[in-house]
Amino acid sequence: MIKHPVQVVAVTGAKGGVGKTNLAVNLSIALAELGRRVMLLDADLGLANVDILLGLSPTRNMADVLAGRCDLRDIILQGPGGVRIIPASSGTQKMTELSPQEHAGMISAFSELSNQLDMLIIDTAAGISDTVISFVRAAQELIIVVTDEPTSITDAYALIKLLHRDYGLLRFRVVANMVRTQQEGHNIYNKLANVTDRFLEVALQYLGAIPQDEAVRKAVMRQRAVIDIYPRSKAAVAIRALAQKVDAFPLPSSPRGHLEFFIENLVAGEVGR
């Protein structure tokens, strides 16, 4: 059986509070609006919050799948725009310390979904824990979310350096979030690019900026996606423009387009980029 190519995109930010999860949620919905069959994996395994952002109430999560109490299909939530969501567990320490076998058990169930998906968006935890690195390395594309804070830029550089030095990753996509002007977005990217150009041989691509927007705060308070409840807001317009760029990412070729390859990378930790 020929497997359908699935684009696996990890959305990460080395520092917490940069709006990474909000961006992952809204980007997923925007991609679904473009006709893509999208699944969003909440990979913040200890502090899940995708379901909270969307006002969803999962009765089971990945912890139940790992324990053998249910199948993956039993925990899938239906989100806005037809996005399917895999909830993680919140406040479960064990979920932050998965063994390679448990990683395999968590992800292997995705194989049967290959022909039902076009894109798998992974919302990672903040920081550079082993779990974050595992998901990032296994994805085909990586989006790093940064803000105009020195710690955000410094931590983003530290993540890029680690992934390049220790794991050979070369390509990084960057989104500037919560900017006051488009020029500020370019300035944030340039600050990061200036450092990477001096010390690392990596390729950075600026995907654009998401403006600071009161509509985002209002949407969060109402536990709705801003692109869903305020579709004409500045943030929603910018996210749709970002989705167009993500949708244009090169389609992965075999075997990189197989979810099985994602699984193998996640467990074995060997990424041939």
User: What is the strand arrangement across the widest sheet?
Assistant: 3-4-2-5-1-6-7-8
- What fraction, in percent, of the residue positions are helical? 40-55%
Q: Tell me about the biggest sheet?
A: 8 strands, mixed
Low-pLDDT residue intervals, each spanning 5 or more residues = none
Short description:
This protein is of the alpha/beta class and 273 residues long.
Overall description:
Keywords: ATP-binding, Nucleotide-binding. Pfam families: ParA (PF10609). One of its GO terms (cellular component) is cytosol. This is MinD/ParA family protein. Helix 5 (130-138) packs antiparallel against helix 11 (259-268) and helix 6 runs parallel beside helix 7. Strands 3-4-2-5-1-6-7-8 form an eight-stranded mixed beta sheet, with helices on both faces. It is built from eleven helices and eight strands. It is an alpha/beta fold.
Question: What order do the helices and strands come in, and which of them pair?
Answer:
Layout: E1 7-12, H1 20-33, E2 38-43, H2 50-53, H3 62-66, E3 77-78, E4 84-86, H4 100-108, E5 119-124, H5 130-138, E6 141-146, H6 150-167, E7 171-179, H7 182-199, E8 203-211, H8 214-221, H9 226-229, H10 234-247, H11 259-268
Helix pairs in contact: 1-10, 4-11, 5-11, 6-7
